[in-house]
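Exercise 7b. Backbone tokens:
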């Protein structure tokens, strides 16, 4: 009976289709582990397209698996822990893909900057714009926690300014590069600042990142958190087992992305050069591949009238991207001797400042205004336009 109970629980937690997906993903990983160098060696257009399609489907399937497990953990652990797990999982994937491109055969000195800036434009304009517009069409004005949102914005200004604006106005290593001392010091400062922000977000001020509740009778944040915890802890043993199982599945979904990232980097390198496309497109492709599942989750949250969760996902993703990717790229550059350029171009700086100002105006109150969603979407279209027609 005990065995049957645990077997039933395992099937309920992890359905058969998840095991099948995981098996297929690992079969692809095994194939590329054995024949990857041969397949991505002498590439033709047709071969590159086929390999890219296989890798793209595999990586996105794994990323959706990561999102699903992280989302389930979010329900078990509550906010902001759940969103944080999802965001850190996705951003880790991005850092891995960028690192793979950097350590590949070509020279991509701006891949870190291009990816981070693409993430900013995709998340802060495209996804926020879609979320505000679709959420507004369904629920009109949507509430969010202004204090928590402003904390995110402050971190975006601080981290984005230090990593992508500052290099254009210092001597550093020359040509917009950080010197070794600057790179090491800045990496440490960003990690420390991001670490303090995580403590701030998850400990004494976690209520600033929770969805405000409507109604006259309101359970205080601390009491609601305790009540939520008591409900979830009704069967501590089963809950702990489920958390461990889902964490293991999440890691099993992330690892294939790590192992396939080198092959994906080679294909992207070949495609961008062969098609004579803008070099920034490599960073945009990485950002789209990585953040598509999380973006869908953010839009779903807006449609469910949980706009604070949308903000936690979108703004939190960009803060985590800078907080994790910048130190990783700088350290890899120092160790490998590769050139790393983080300074934005003049056009990118204008878009950066417009995005920040628009975000400040969008989230200066306590409710969303659907029309601002259109503004964010227009700014994203301008970004794509300038990539191909600078």
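Sequence design result:
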């Amino acid at each position: 009976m005990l065995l049957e109970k645990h077997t039933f629980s395992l099937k309920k937690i992890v359905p058969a289709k998840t095991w099948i997906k995981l098996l297929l993903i690992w079969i692809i990983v095994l194939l590329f582990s054995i024949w990857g160098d041969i397949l991505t060696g002498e590439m033709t257009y047709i071969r590159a397209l086929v390999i890219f399609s296989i890798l793209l489907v595999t990586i996105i399937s794994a990323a959706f698996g990561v999102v699903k497990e992280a989302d389930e953990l979010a329900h078990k652990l509550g906010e902001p822990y759940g969103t944080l797990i999802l965001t850190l999982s996705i951003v880790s994937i991005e850092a891995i893909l960028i690192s793979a491109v950097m350590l590949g055969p070509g020279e991509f000195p701006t891949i870190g900057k291009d990816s981070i800036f693409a993430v900013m434009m995709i998340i802060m304009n495209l996804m926020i714009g879609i979320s505000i517009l679709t959420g507004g069409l369904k629920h009109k004005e949507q509430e969010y926690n202004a204090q928590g949102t402003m904390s995110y914005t402050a971190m975006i200004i601080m981290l984005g300014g230090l990593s992508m604006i500052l290099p254009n106005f210092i001597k550093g290593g020359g040509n917009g590069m950080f010197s070794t001392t600057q790179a090491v010091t800045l990496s440490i400062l960003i990690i420390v600042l991001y670490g303090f922000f995580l403590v701030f977000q998850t400990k004494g001020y976690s209520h600033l990142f929770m969805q405000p509740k409507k109604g006259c009778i309101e359970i205080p944040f601390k009491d609601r958190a305790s009540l939520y915890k008591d409900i979830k802890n009704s069967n501590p043993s089963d809950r702990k087992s489920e958390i461990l199982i889902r964490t293991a599945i999440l890691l099993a979904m992330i690892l294939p992305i790590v192992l396939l990232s080198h092959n994906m980097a080679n294909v992207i390198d070949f495609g961008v050069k062969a098609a004579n496309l803008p070099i920034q497109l490599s960073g945009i492709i990485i950002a789209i591949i990585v953040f598509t599942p999380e973006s869908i989750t953010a839009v779903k949250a807006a449609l469910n009238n949980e706009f604070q969760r949308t903000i936690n996902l979108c703004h939190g993703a960009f803060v985590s991207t800078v907080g994790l990717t910048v130190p990783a790229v700088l350290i890899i550059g120092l160790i490998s001797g590769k050139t790393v350029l983080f300074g934005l171009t003049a056009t990118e700086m204008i878009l950066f400042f417009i995005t920040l100002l628009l975000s400040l105006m969008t989230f200066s109150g306590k409710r969303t205004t659907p029309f601002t969603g259109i503004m964010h979407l227009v700014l994203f279209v301008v970004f794509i336009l300038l990539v191909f027609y600078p």
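Instructor comment: The CA atoms of residues 119 and 279 lie 15 Å apart. The two ends are 68 Å apart (CA to CA).
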